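Researcher: Go.
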Amino acid sequence: MKLLGLLALALVLGLAQPAPAQVIEVKRFDLQRSSEDYVVNAEFAFRLTERLEEALNNGVALAFVFEFELIRPRWYWFDEKTASARLEARLSFNPLLRQYRVSVAELHRSFGSLADALASFSALRNWAVVPRDRLDANKSYVASLRLRLDTAQLPKPFQVSAITDKDLTLSSEWQRIGFTPAPPAESAQK
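Model: Structure:
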């Protein structure tokens, strides 16, 4: 009987998880060839919910994650995951200096307003995600990108609240584009 009760509780908790609030939108996304890699360029539009903005202004740092996947569809078997990458961006507020701080990889910048801080990482430029030699020019791929708030890096009380509170779960939908690598420059000239 206890096992049945635990299963029912797990089912209820599983169903109680909120759908992410769709306040992050992928405006533009492309994958381009650079000298050594394929790079992602993207633009996002988003705002923080009132609850997250209040938490940020009270000293809670927010960690966002850019997630990229490259899949090669196959009709005869499961799709092949060719590449994946993650890039973290951290947003914090210093109440003494009255400044917002954005950290992306090794880059740290301070801003006087929240709007400027959000705008600084709403545009992703030249993020190297796949080495050029890893892709086959004769095959087609599907590239996917999303941006989400990493609730696992919130303080524990917020993590518990995020299970049922959609105001604490920001995420974009996966944006997908078809992609065929450009042939190497040597074979394109022949």
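Model: Strands lie at 24-33, 37-46, 62-72, 80-94, 99-104, 107-111, 123-131, 141-149, 175-179.
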